Amino acid sequence: MKNGTKHFILRGIWYLVGVILFFSPVALFQKLIILFFHISGRMDIHGMCLRSTINSLIVGKLSVSLSISLVALIMLTVATVFLGPLFCGFLCPVGALPEYLSRLIPDKCKIGWSRFINPTPVRYGFFAAFILAPFIVGSSICCAYCNFTFFQTLLDGGFWGSFGILGSTIIVTALLWLVLFGLFTKGGRGFCSFMCPIGAYQNLIYSLTSKLPFVFKLRIDHEKCVSCGICVKKCPMGALYVDGKGQLKHQIHTCILCLQCKAECPKQAISYGLKRSRKRVVNNAAES
Amino acid sequence: VKKRFGFTVLTFIVLFVAMFGAANGMAYYRSCVTDERGMFRVSLSRDAETYPVVVDIAKQGLPKKIFQPGGITVYSGHSGGITNKTSDDLNVLVKYEGFSCPVVFESTDKDFDLSTGELKRTLKLNQAFAMGIELEIPRAQLKQKAVMEGQILFVDADTGGLLATVDATVINSNGSGQG
Questions:
Q1: Is the CB of B68 less than 8 angstroms away from the CB of A134?
Q2: What is the ipTM of this complex?
């Protein structure tokens, strides 16, 4: 089995762990937090809603009382500072579902949005509106367009049972998340690229902290890289591209650190870790 | 290598502003379709007040009209909405009557039993809980002006006394017939 396929399956297992951790009926994370901190809360994804907590944090309305959401946000932020947006790359089943489903559709039927449009300003534009819309139009997009809610609804209905009563905004979300930006988008992660505030929040932090020496990051060894473009094709977020000079470039604002590129690279030119010191890179080059 | 839109400063700003505008448009759309669901706030008291809620099918958004026009929620919001205003500790039982279609309870409160309508904790003064009902109205019925009506009853489980009533009415202002 190819490395890339193995990694794709491994990620799939991690996403299932994400389902067990964060979504009912198990919601293990919520149960552990309740047990550990002796607080009350809901035993489903709404119990640890990151979207509303991020919103409250940025507009300065975050409740200081301990809640599952607050603990989850602190853990997410700390993990992102040191490790990058690994939550998206390995634990978020909501982003993974359309990615895995999109494999069922032939590539010629899909749109490669990131080939034509830089996703960075789009996702940050959405993120800015996510924060500011209540002040501008007096209405929030926080809960109304939440694909986490719809994923929980799918789980509650057993994926093939009753979806319950859906509103127009959730129907729009489902169509965008699963159909237009899912099944019919190359990589299947159009919603993550353009419309996920949790992803944008993490990438914003990651872009600010990644230059620090103690932060894990994606590393490209340009001496090993032959710019074959395999990683570019396999990146579900479209976060890699070959520039006009034929050099592989990595967009830190959209990368979710799924490390699919690392697994696919035939030259082992991509790695994940702390920034290498210049001296060690020179030594490694001399050894090889 | 294809040149992608959004890499120069100008196109970056254009994309940012375009998405910012579109997302605000989504927020505005959300406010336009809020009336798809009927919402009520109830004070539980010995006077047993009645709270009217009207849901108008004609105000549904297009996606709802296409995919699920007969699915109607009447609820108290996700957090709270039904508050004990009596001086007693209450064990609350919720019932519904009068609806001529399938009805189920919904609640975000883990103590609310969806099968019996019973709140499994005692509600003290000023404490609140959240619940609602989901109606599955047949499509044919949606064309009438007066679509459906019924009541949600909040009862003291210990004494059987009525604490509040929600009069839920579903109409279609574009419908035909009397109403």
A1: no
A2: 0.90
Cross-chain Cβ contact B28/A144 below 8 Å: no
CA nearest neighbour of A137 among B17, B24, B32, B18: B24
Interface of A with B (CB under 8 A): 42-43, 46, 114-126, 128-130, 132-134, 136-141, 144-145, 164-169, 171-172, 175, 194, 241-244, 246
pLDDT tens readout for residues A90-124? 999 999 999 999 999 999 999 999 888 999 999 99
Residues of B in contact with A168 (CB under 8 A): 29, 33, 36, 60-64
Query: Does A137 contact B31 at a Cβ distance shorter than 8 Å?
Result: yes
pLDDT digits (tens, 9 = 90+) for B56-67: 999 999 999 999
Exposed, middle or buried: residue A64 (CB in 10 Å: 0-12, 13-18, 19+)?
exposed
Kindly report the pTM of this predicted structure. 0.88
Q: What is the dihedral of CA A252, A256, A261, A262, to 10 degrees?
A: 90
- Residue B3: pLDDT band by 50, 70, 90 thresholds? low
A85 neighbors A203 (Cβ within 8 angstroms): yes
Contact A46, A138 (CB under 8 A): no
Determine the Cα–Cα distance for residues B160 and A95; give it in Å rounded to an integer: 49
* Distance from C-alpha of A134 to C-alpha of A140, rounded to nearest angstrom: 5
Q: Which of A55, A48, A199, A46 is nearest to A134 (CA)?
A: A55
Cβ–Cβ gap B108/A241 under 8 Å: no
- Give the SS3 label for residue A237: coil
Cβ–Cβ under 8 Å, residues B94 and B155: yes
